[in-house]
Amino acid sequence: MKVAIPIWNSRISPLLDTARHLLIVEIENGLEFSRSEVELEDYFLPRRARRFVELDIKILICGAISRQLAAMLVGSGITVVPWMSGLIDDVLQAYLKGKLPDSRFLMPGCPRRGPRGRFHGGRRPWWVWEGKL
Prior knowledge:
Elements: E1 2-8, E2 11-12, E3 21-28, E4 31-39, H1 45-54, E5 59-61, H2 67-75, E6 79-81, H3 88-96
Parallel strand pairs: 1-5, 5-6
Antiparallel strand pairs: 1-2, 1-3, 3-4
Helix pairs in contact: 1-2
């Protein structure tokens, strides 16, 4: 399974729509098998979404994302975990341990934070987009 994370200076890029670099991590049996980096050259959203499909991405962990791009990715069968921030390796380790989403990694000002800055909801929050938006 391939997990993609847009990167900027060893952190999750704050906005997927304009991210230039994408880290692709292949996961086998719950462990990182390999990683590679690709450059995202096209800002036209339909072509950008198609690139994710061509790369065979199954999970996308990202910061902010436009609703249009999210809809295209989810419509293509990609699970989108938005509003994440932090160092790439920390977020990836949390994902591999099944602890993502986690309030430690929510973007500041994220609309999904509760009154005390904590993430609220159950084990799988409704804003992890797997089906309809």
